[in-house]
């Protein structure tokens, strides 16, 4: 049975302030939990319902090898601690890793005031797909450990390093800084130099003024059909594919 203290602690992790304070975040659902297990994630705690256990005994048994204290809870208790309206039957608390802010080689993604959790999660998932494991977020981005971001990321959090509230200036001496902009150079004609940072801007306003002055180049995706613009997550995926597969991956 879950204690009042445990319940209060998990509910606090629904909010950014307490996630930062405790360096913990919530994941829910069999798929995310299995991805965490595959990545070697160590859980702080795990809670599951009897209904989930009856169908997924192997998952609970695997968790119990490293966390014997994982707990079975009632449906009402699960509803009380879950971040979703219809809980899936399993919830885990994970640790937020701490990384050095030192810039190193390789390609990076810089997210400039991305506000939509779904877009953020999709961009993280896409970055991991293309082998880009370093993500930098500007001050006003949605929290990378927001439950909606975590669900949309589909396990990407366990395979990348994210750095929040960071300036783009730190890359000026070591990387080519490329901004995605509708008025930029055609990506098909763009010749890349050195390791790069791809900068993706806010859904409504695009790249901020403070970011634009730091760019070495801007690139765009040529329009063949109709439409005003592409969703930032869609555009980000297209640009990552072009930069990684056609321009080389440093």
List the helices and strands and how they pair.
Layout: H1 4-12, H2 16-22, E1 24-28, H3 30-38, E2 43-48, H4 50-55, H5 57-64, E3 71-72, H6 75-81, E4 90-95, E5 108-111, H7 117-129, E6 134-137, H8 147-153, E7 161-163, E8 176-186, E9 196-200, H9 209-212, E10 217-220, H10 232-247
Parallel strand pairs: 2-3, 5-6, 5-9, 6-7, 8-9, 8-10
Antiparallel strand pairs: 1-4, 2-4
Give a verbal description of the structure.
- The protein has 250 residues and is an alpha/beta fold.
- It folds into two domains: 4-95, 2-Layer Sandwich (60s Ribosomal Protein L30, Chain: A); 108-247, SPOUT methyltransferase, trefoil knot domain (Alpha/beta knot, 3-Layer(aba) Sandwich), CATH 3.40.1280.
- It is 34% helix and 20% strand.
- It contains ten helices and ten strands.
- The chain has helices spanning 4-12, 16-22, 30-38, 50-55, 57-64, 75-81, 117-129, 147-153, 209-212, 232-247, and strands at residues 24-28, 43-48, 71-72, 90-95, 108-111, 134-137, 161-163, 176-186, 196-200, 217-220.
- The strands form two sheets. It has a six-stranded parallel sheet with strand order 7-6-5-9-8-10, covered by helices on one side. Strands 1-4-2-3 form a four-stranded mixed sheet.
- Helix 7 links the parallel strand 5 and strand 6.
- Helix 7 packs parallel to helix 10 (232-247).
- The longest helix has 16 residues, at 232-247.
């Amino acid at each position: 049975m879950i204690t009042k203290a445990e319940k209060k602690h998990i509910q606090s992790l629904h909010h950014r302030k307490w996630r930062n304070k405790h360096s913990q975040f919530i994941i829910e659902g069999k798929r995310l939990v299995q991805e965490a297990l595959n990545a070697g994630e160590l859980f702080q705690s795990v809670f599951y319902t009897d209904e989930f256990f009856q169908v997924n005994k192997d998952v609970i048994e695997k968790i119990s090898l490293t966390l014997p204290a994982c707990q079975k809870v009632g449906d009402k208790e699960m509803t009380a601690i879950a971040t979703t309206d219809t809980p899936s039957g399993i919830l885990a608390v994970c640790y937020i890793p701490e990384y050095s802010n030192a810039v190193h080689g390789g390609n990076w993604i810089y997210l400039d005031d991305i506000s939509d959790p779904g877009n953020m999660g999709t961009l993280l998932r896409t970055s991991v797909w293309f082998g880009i494991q370093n993500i930098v977020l500007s001050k006003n981005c949605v929290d990378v450990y927001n439950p909606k971001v975590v669900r949309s990321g589909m396990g990407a959090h366990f395979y990348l390093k994210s750095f929040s509230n960071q300036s783009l200036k730190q890359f000026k001496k070591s990387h080519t800084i490329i901004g995605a902009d509708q008025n930029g150079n055609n990506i098909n004609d763009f010749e890349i130099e050195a390791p790069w940072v791809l900068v993706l801007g806010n859904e409504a306003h695009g790249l901020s003024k403070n970011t634009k002055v730091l760019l070495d180049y801007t690139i765009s995706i040529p329009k063949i059909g109709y439409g005003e613009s592409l969703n930032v997550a869609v555009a980000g995926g297209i640009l990552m594919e072009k930069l990684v597969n056609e321009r080389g991956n440093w």
